[in-house]
């Protein structure tokens, strides 16, 4: 058995394994960081086709939040899963995603609005049309599934706007209710500010005035 002193004498830095770290930047560039002789060496690796600067999650998100008995909130995965839709007795689907096709046009009543998840998108301008669709489903004792791509920003903003418009809830109360139904909810900063400034009564009054002007 070697003593500790003998092991120290025979120790060599060359026997140490190099420590390497693979890094992917936001633009998809892949880098290899290697520590050698107390110095960091960075090399660019060959890019993979379709690489992105985040960990891609290909798992299905079938979690559906029930905001009201007739209003459900989810991602596109739930909207494309027939078993989930039937289990929840969905009759209407409000699709506010961008570039997501309706999977079962002969089984459910759809309304589709291609909305971009960008802070500058005027999300409140879509509330009136979305709320009317939800109202129509409710009048038929139906259940509406509202979805975008991830069920985080656009669809959440639409449901929050619906609660503020139809139930007179404040933004804070509506946001808390929707967040409790689906924890992943997080409208982008632009939507958040628009919702805080949203005044349903004023928008309805302005809409009625515009309609009267057009008629005359």
Automatic annotation (TrEMBL):
Report the residue ranges that make up the Tyrosine specific protein phosphatases domain in this protein.
Answer: 124-193
A GO molecular-function term, please?
JUN kinase phosphatase activity
Q: Which domain of life is it from?
A: Eukaryota
Please give the PROSITE patterns that the UniProt record associates with this protein.
Answer: TYR_PHOSPHATASE_1, TYR_PHOSPHATASE_2, TYR_PHOSPHATASE_DUAL
**Does the UniProt entry include the keyword Magnesium?**
no
Domain Tyrosine-protein phosphatase: from-to ranges = 63-204
Annotated signal sequence is none
Key word Iron present:
no
SUPFAM superfamilies for this protein: (Phosphotyrosine protein) phosphatases II (SSF52799)
The record's Pfam families line, in alphabetical order, gives: DSPc
This entry carries the following GO cellular component terms, namely: cytoplasm
Could you tell me which CDD domains the record lists for this protein?
Answer: DSP_DUSP19
Key words, A-Z: Hydrolase, Protein phosphatase
InterPro entries recorded for this chain?
Answer: Dual-sp_phosphatase_cat-dom (IPR000340), Prot-tyrosine_phosphatase-like (IPR029021), Tyr_Pase_AS (IPR016130), Tyr_Pase_dom (IPR000387), TYR_PHOSPHATASE_DUAL_dom (IPR020422)
Protein's name according to its UniProt entry: Dual specificity phosphatase 19b
Q: What is the lineage of its organism?
A: Eukaryota, Metazoa, Chordata, Craniata, Vertebrata
